[in-house]
Design a protein that fits this description.
It is a single chain. This protein has five helices and four strands; from the N terminus they run H-E-H-E-E-H-H-E-H. It has 160 residues and is α/β, with parallel strands linked by helices. Strands 3-2-1-4 form a four-stranded parallel β-sheet, with helices on both faces. The termini are far apart.
Length: 160
């Protein structure tokens, strides 16, 4: 059991040390444009769960990334899949809260190659990666800005 824990710890350190990208631009020349879906996992901090979700999405052909809320300069980014927008860059857009949602929206604003993107918070999980891909496929042509179950209207003015 101790050996397993040590191996998991070392694997976690290896993964965390393999990330580094704090610029707003991204070189997409190697991205397969025929990939149907792009997804960004929004995470305050990198975790094993988030990294496993990223890898699972990539393995099934989703063009997946993580938008990180913490400065990842201490990591070496060998995959170019960790995104980060600095607080200084957010300030150029008049944003002062500096939340991961702010970061991803500023980043997306500067990406003309993306027609649509799935934004997934880091607490979202699935039992089988193919369920999430089936979900993506089912709603790929839906023009809604937000997909949700059981929306409760408080009054007639709520969603105008």
């Amino acid at each position: 059991m101790i050996t397993f824990d040590v191996c998991c710890f070392l694997y976690c350190i290896k993964i965390l040390l393999s990330f580094n990208n704090n610029s707003i631009s991204y070189n997409f020349s190697h991205i397969n444009k025929s990939i149907r879906h792009t997804a960004i996992i929004l995470a305050k901090i990198l975790s094993i769960k988030v990294l496993k979700h990223l890898n699972a999405l990539i393995k099934v052909g989703v063009n997946a990334f993580i938008m990180c809320d913490e400065e990842p300069s201490k990591y070496i980014n060998s995959t170019n899949r960790i995104l980060y927008i600095s607080n200084e860059h957010l300030a150029q857009y008049g944003i002062s809260q500096n939340l991961v949602w702010d970061r991803v929206l500023v980043w997306l604003y500067n990406q003309s190659w993306i027609d649509y993107v799935w934004l997934i918070e880091d607490d979202v999980t699935w039992s089988n990666i193919h369920h999430i891909v089936d979900f993506f496929n089912r709603y790929a042509n839906n023009s809604a800005d937000l997909l949700s179950r059981n929306i409760i209207y408080r009054n007639n003015q709520t969603l105008k």
